[in-house]
Specification:
Elements: H1 5-11, H2 21-36, E1 40-47, E2 52-59, H3 63-69, H4 78-85, E3 89-91, H5 105-110, E4 115-121, E5 126-132, H6 138-156, H7 160-184, E6 189-192, E7 198-201, H8 203-209, H9 217-239, E8 246-252, E9 259-270, E10 277-285, H10 287-323, E11 328-331, E12 337-340, H11 342-348, H12 356-380, E13 384-392, E14 399-410, E15 416-425, H13 427-478, H14 486-510, E16 517-519, H15 521-538, E17 541-547, E18 554-556, H16 558-575, E19 580-588, E20 602-608, H17 638-648, E21 652-658, E22 662-669
Parallel strand pairs: 17-19
Antiparallel strand pairs: 1-2, 1-5, 3-4, 4-5, 6-7, 6-10, 8-9, 9-10, 11-12, 11-15, 13-14, 14-15, 16-18, 19-20, 20-22, 21-22
Helix pairs in contact: 2-6, 6-7, 13-14, 13-15, 15-16, 16-17
Amino acid sequence: MVRNLPELYRSRDIDNPSGDLKELLMPTLRELAGTFDYDRVLVAQVDRDQCVLRGTVGINVSDELFDALASRLDERGPVVQALLEARAICVNDPLHDPRVPENVRRSYVELGLHSLAAIPLSPVSCVLVVSRGRPVTEADINELLPYAEWLVAILAEPVGATGYREASEKRAAQNDWLWRMLNATQDPIILTDEQNNVLMANLPAERLLKASPEDSPGKRRAIELNNFFVSAGLSSVTLDPREGPGRELTLVDPIEGAELLFEVISAPAVNAHTGERGPVSVLKDVTDLRHAEDELRRSLEELRTAEEDARSERDWLNLILESVADPIVVTDPAGQIIRLNQPAERLLHGHDDDQWDQISTVYLTNEAKIGSFLLQLQLESAWVRRGELELVDPDSREPMTMGVTATVVCDELGQVTAIVLVLHDLTKARELERRTLEHQLFESEKLAAIGRMAAAVAHEVNNPLESITNALYLALSELPQGHMNRKYLEIASKETQRVSGIIRQMLGFYRPAASQAPTDVNALLEESITLLERHLRQFDIIVERELEAGLPLVLASSEQLEQVFLNLFLNAKEAMPGGGTLSISTRLARETDREFLAGRYILVHVRDTGLGIPPAHLPHIFDPFYSTKRESNGTGLGLWVSLGIVQNHGGQIKVFSRPGRGTTFTVALPPEGTQ
């Protein structure tokens, strides 16, 4: 059985310092107290048979403390329980913990035993007891276990010198492992005294702080600066510890001469043997981290600047878009709308919820037409596409002719990023063109009518004038040269010839030579339809086209032929006051087309579904001043002028009509080179 501590102490050879049990235990107890900041550290021997304390060795142990820890047979305190139960016991509330005998609970508090831990030292009948002012946790117990093993090794060896030597060897092995562990890390670790002198350093720290005689002056100077910086940095930690354990410290690389940035993490340490105090500092190299942080900060600043520039450019772009009176639509490459200015929103995205059900169809129709236009742009693979769209005004429900220009926007790599559509309202311009054209057509008809009338008068006067001329010629041929009336007949004959010349000039003026050029009839018809199509829609007239491709060109005056086609279109409109269909078709003449003279012709058919022309009027519709229009809406010269123009081009014009079933005008024009 292990003897009590005083007996063990008396059994030692007091002449041998290593045999002094107290001397063997106290270094370990001091180190334990200094390392973990315990107020009291002691080893207590417990009599297993009597279940009472027999003796103690430790720091800050008084008789009152011994009495408080001692237990009677009927009341086992935490120290005895720890030994009997072979487990560590923590008491952090002695006033209420049932493991503390009730009669000594207040004594625990008065003696400063606010929190204590009892760790059994098996197989010897001893217990390690520690106490302090803050709670003892399970993690604290784990840190105490290596010291408990150390104490067991000292107490269990009968010969103190042998145990001390083996314990010293074990401690030396542990120190060696500790040294190897410190050197295995790449971070410098140093131990300094209270004057900030370096006492110990691992190898990474020695590379920065320890010079050798073989080093160059530059390296020694760098190391000297590093020691100064370390001392100054640790002094700032000592003077103002409130800033926390982490400080930044700038050192110099002794080899490269580059600047190194370290974060200093310091913790206080106490030498249990000498009582000296000083911080243990770990220098964490954060050079690359700080460089990365600086780079990241610069990148963030550049990003913030770019964001501000982008925001400014966006605001500027929005201001420009809102200042443009024409609708502007911006879509992504797939055709989805991503931005609209206010005029475009009025056409496509209204915000009046009360009327949404009524005009939603208008918005959807307008957007569908724009989407179809964009789809055609994608199919053509063009960068710019221009055209016209017939949209509907959401406010007035009136049709709008919009000129559209779609432009593809690409980035620096040539990838399509957006499509910009600019719409321009052509409604008023088309209406003005139509009215101007109608006015010009009307004036042209009047001038042509006047010319035809003058020509007709001249033609009618010319016939009797020729008779008078012939009669005067015969009368002169019958009179001899000296006859007294001959000179009067010669004067009459001369004046008659002068009048005949004037009439011939009038006939020549009626048929002025118009400049002619190869003309595409289909293109001319499309142009004429475009001028009147919106006007026709206002009267609920639908225009249908069936133009044969590849027709030969016609040698003609495009202005005169356009006048003919516009006359026919306007007559068709007048014939359909309640609306209807205007069909326009072209083709080459066939052998079965008997209504025209033999030859090769291009046929232009203009059909309407109007009222038709009564049979009694058909023979006279090409006569001048003959009109079937009601309320004096016409001059009766349009078809007369059109007939003259077609005949001047070597063509023919025919009409077929049935009352109530519509009218068809057919214009036959000879291709270029066949006249």
